[in-house]
Amino acid sequence: MSRRRQVYEGKAKVLFEGPEPGTLIQYFKDDATAFNNRKHGIITGKGVLNNRISEYFMMKLGEIGIPTHFIRRLNMREQLIREVEIIPIEVVIRNYAAGGIVKRLGLEEGQRLPRTILEYSFKSDELGDPMVAEEHITAFGWASVPEMDDIIGYSLRINDFLSGLLLGVGLKLVDFKLEFGRLWEEDDVRIVLADEISPDSCRLWDVTSGERLDKDRFRQDLGRVEEAYQEVARRLGILPEAGPRDLAGPETLQ
Ligand code: TMP
Ligand code: ASP
Known about the structure:
Layout: E1 6-9, E2 13-17, E3 23-28, E4 31-34, E5 39-42, H1 46-63, E6 70-73, E7 78-82, E8 85-86, E9 89-96, H2 100-105, E10 112-122, E11 131-132, H3 134-139, H4 145-167, E12 171-185, E13 188-194, E14 202-206, H5 216-219, H6 225-236
Antiparallel strand pairs: 1-2, 2-3, 3-7, 4-5, 6-7, 8-12, 9-10, 9-12, 10-11, 12-13, 12-14
Helix pairs in contact: 1-6
The structure holds thymidine-5'-phosphate and aspartic acid (ASP).
């Protein structure tokens, strides 16, 4: 990596100063964590695939009028994004029961939920991202009521769009996590989709076999983790042309 100024390092990504004010470079690592950082690992090629997959989803969402932080992909592991002020909330959108909601409410894994359910967590590593209600978010000023209206509206539209897109390639969008940010433009501020959308932040099940094609393979030691990420990219028609051999190369410019 060059001597650009690093702005932030997270568990799966690094942010560097971008070429112009108001831009950042988002670098995707192969590192994987789960269970609030208690489990660590490397998923070889994950960064390359998540960079592609997130680019693909963000571009498609842009085409249907969802504002996002994405500008363009720069190379195998990096994309140019707009600098936003991250809202300290993770929005989880659930269509089928899996993961946290199964544990908390004793639901049957895989059951269709009576309707799409949105949940929120306060982003705090020390506190383990506690679940909060909309009431906490607006009371503590993490987001205003009109901002929450935008966040909820966008989340539901994103869910409908991605559920259909993924169903078209034989994948069930069980649940996923989104993050939003405030984009300041002169004296205007608006909510945009930020972070990433990838098999790290989604549960994707094959519609016929129910096979897990997401980070649950890593969380639950199901094996064939790299292959699952590749399979998602392959189905979307965006597997890097040189194939899996290409995936370990860190910064190959295209
Ligand atoms: P959960 O069932 O563990 O709450 O996860 C719901 C969805 O959110 C799942 O698709 C994985 C994603 N997720 C993240 O992207 N980051 C996280 O820190 C957690 C807990 C979940
Ligand atoms: N990535 C999160 C963590 O490191 C949790 C997860 O996705 O399971 O805690």
